[in-house]
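User: Hey, quick favor. My workstation is busy. Could you predict this chain's structure for me?
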Amino acid sequence: MNNHEKLRLRDPAMTPTREVLGQTLGDSYAAYETFQEALPGLEIEQDWQWYTPHKAWFAKGRHFWTTPKGTRKEKNLYWLHVYEGFFSVAVWFKEKNRAEILSAGVSEKTRQLILDAETYGKLATFPVIFEIITTGPPADIYTLLDCKKRLER
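Assistant: No problem, here it is.
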């Protein structure tokens, strides 16, 4: 069974609430809350959206800023997927930025995730995917999200 088949939150009529997420994530819910509490300090807003192609709810994390000319801009930073008992955070980067994020001061485990990540599509992008089970999110998530905010702004 692939990860797509293991996705939860498959009912379009059931918006992901604290109760639904708590039941689905179980012991990982505390790690989810820790992640959520960090987002405002990182200037990241998260919202849930139903995606018909995947037939599941995903959370999208975005960073908003205003240019010197007053234009409001936004950048997608991550996708959060919910599974039974854990969640994942996928941060997508352009291939041309791989060397820069490798030098971002992340752990050896995260460096290996970056090195092993396969490149996809015409835009040559790759995901760095963190699966968060019961402990809090690794600090490297925040490092990579900060990197992503700065890249190609």
